[in-house]
Design goal:
- The protein folds into two domains: 94 residues, Death Domain, Fas, CATH 1.10.533.10; 213 residues, Rossmann fold (3-Layer(aba) Sandwich).
- The chain has 15 helices and eleven strands.
Length: 417
């Protein structure tokens, strides 16, 4: 039954390869009706598409659905493009299919990639041919768990739960920066994950540094944050320690990005969790790894604070930066690893853990589990510096994301025999 509902891998990859162009240029209203008549889409799917906000989001959702709608879906989609005078997109798709069929011949390939300049042309063929998104389901929180824990957690009652922004830079024109194949796969799975978690997702692709700063500032100042309970920002790009690149090769400082969302500049997000995830290199060094030795964990325990728990009031002062957690794909000075078809190691691990654990686990604890998933992964690229390479993610918390009650409970748990 599985084969009946799968599009050919070359066709699926072609849709993903030109995803951004299609999402921006596609006029999809008549195409959706054609696909419904051809029994590629169901009535429920059409209703889902109609609820999308804006043309770009509607086109993105349509492109997410197509690879799972059977072997006829690609040809029916191309037929609909021709009938609606969008043959230039048909030509783009068929050209991409031809290229993918040539690339997908059996070969020994790399499992990992970094955006290092001199290696960017080496990783054109990859292992996985799946569509990369929409194949998982986030487990819902049970009523019992909610009633037992909601007083110790941030308020998460708004619908949508929050606004999410995904920034993905893939095609660079800056000197010495290669393209980032696999970025579209990361964007696809992140959109699916965040949508299932209840976020309204916006994605921005291939932005120069100044435009990137403007987009982030506009997002931080959005009035939507007043009505929602949290915020997510994902940055996918080349980078160095403390900064990421725009596609023009100019840097945007991470500190400046955090500042846009702090309590002074973004009052609509005061006392609300702000989550950042950064998939970018923080240096050129490749982690060669060491032989594994098992050892007991020795977590630190903060000294318990004295006094009563502070009440949150409108007039109470806040630190300039608080309620922020940031997950980094790699350690300081090291390179972040990426598969050109499956996407980056960090985003794959992030999606896996959040899908399985978001219903009952604190974000910081999930990021610890993300580290564990990445720790066990090893690169395969014989003949290069990246063969048997390793990666280790990390995260940081600004003024602790947890409330005081929750911190005390975690301390007691740590100190328990």
């Amino acid at each position: 039954m599985k084969g009946k509902w799968e599009m050919k891998s070359a066709e699926s990859e072609a849709l993903r390869k030109v995803h951004v162009t299609l999402a921006k240029q596609l006029v999809s209203t008549e195409i959706v009706h054609h696909l419904l008549s051809a029994e590629i889409l169901t009535e429920e799917m059409v209703d889902l598409l109609e609820t999308c906000r804006g043309t770009f989001q509607k086109n993105t959702e349509l492109l997410r659905l197509l690879p799972k709608r059977g072997p006829r879906a690609f040809e029916e989609f191309c037929r609909a493009l021709d009938r609606t005078k969008q043959s230039h997109l048909t030509g783009l798709l068929r050209e991409s299919v031809t290229e993918e069929e040539a690339l997908c011949k059996p070969t020994q390939e790399s499992e990992c990639v970094t955006p290092a300049k001199k290696f960017c042309s080496l990783w054109r063929v990859c292992l996985d041919a799946g569509d990369g998104s929409g194949t998982f389901s986030v487990r819902p929180t049970t009523a019992q768990f909610y009633h037992e824990h909601h007083k110790q957690s941030y308020r998460m009652a708004s619908r949508p739960r929050g606004a999410a922004l995904i920034v993905s830079n893939e095609v660079f024109v800056g000197e010495g920066l290669g393209h980032r194949p696999g970025g579209a796969a990361d964007t696809g799975v992140l959109r699916a994950l965040l949508s299932q978690l209840g976020y309204r997702v916006t994605s921005v692709c291939n932005s120069p540094a100044q435009e990137l700063e403007t987009r982030l500032r506009d997002f931080a100042l959005s009035a939507d944050h007043r009505r929602t309970d949290s915020c997510v920002v994902v940055l996918l790009s080349h980078g160095v320690e403390g900064a990421i690149y725009g596609v023009d090769g100019k840097l945007v400082q991470i500190h400046d990005i955090f500042q846009l969302f702090d309590n002074a500049n973004c009052p609509n997000l005061q006392n609300k969790p702000k989550m950042f995830f950064i998939q970018a290199c923080r240096g050129d060094r490749t982690d060669r790894g060491v032989d594994r030795l098992d050892g007991a964990d020795a977590p630190g325990c903060e000294e318990c604070d004295a006094g009563k728990e502070r009440e949150r009031t409108r007039r109470g002062k806040l630190p300039t930066q608080s309620d922020i957690i940031c997950g980094y794909a790699c350690l300081r000075g090291t390179a972040a690893l990426r598969n050109t078809r499956q996407g980056s190691w960090y985003i794959q691990a992030l999606v896996k853990v959040f899908t399985e654990r978001a219903h009952n686990t604190h974000v910081a604890d999930m990021l610890v589990q993300v580290n564990a998933v990445i720790r066990d992964r090893e690169g395969f690229a014989p003949g290069t510096d990246f063969h048997r390479c390793k990666e280790m993610a990390e995260y940081s918390i600004f003024e602790e994301m947890e409330g005081e009650t929750q911190r005390k409970q975690r301390r007691r748990k740590t100190a328990a025999p």
